[in-house]
User: Fold this.
Amino acid sequence: MKLLDDKGRVLGLINIVDLIIVLLVLLVGAGAAYKLTHRSEQGKTVTVEFQVMIPHVRPELAQAIKVGDRMVKGGSYTDVTVKDVQVRPGYSVNVDSRGQRVESFDPYLKDVYVTNVVATVISSAAIIAGGQEVRVGKEYYVKSRDYEFKGTVVKVEVKE
Assistant:
């Protein structure tokens, strides 16, 4: 017995095109059944708290950031809210008259530490908050309806 006969049927039973369609339908059905029955732990909602340091901000601008402000992405609000704001003297490293690097604090400019909190689903190797990736050392835009500052993430804490 031939695998394909002269009418294009496999083993004389079913047309090759019909066999391919049946196999595709079975594969899609098996994939859907697997997806519905196998839930992963990655879909769990967790609270992420992260701190963003915004360096060298004028004092009057630093006062714009308030606890409870909601962050925006594009033209809409996100689930990220400001939990805490700390304003500290602006830290810098300068060169003195002997050419040595010295630490100093700017008497005018301030460093602003903004602690944000969000409830999010971590489903990959990245934490996304307000449409931005949150990772220590990564740039993060602290922006609400009224202000926008560019800072750096300095601390990330995931709470179960």
In short: Strands lie at 9-10, 14-15, 45-57, 70-73, 76-95, 101-121, 127-129, 132-134, 139-143, 148-159. The chain has two domains: 1-38, 42-159.
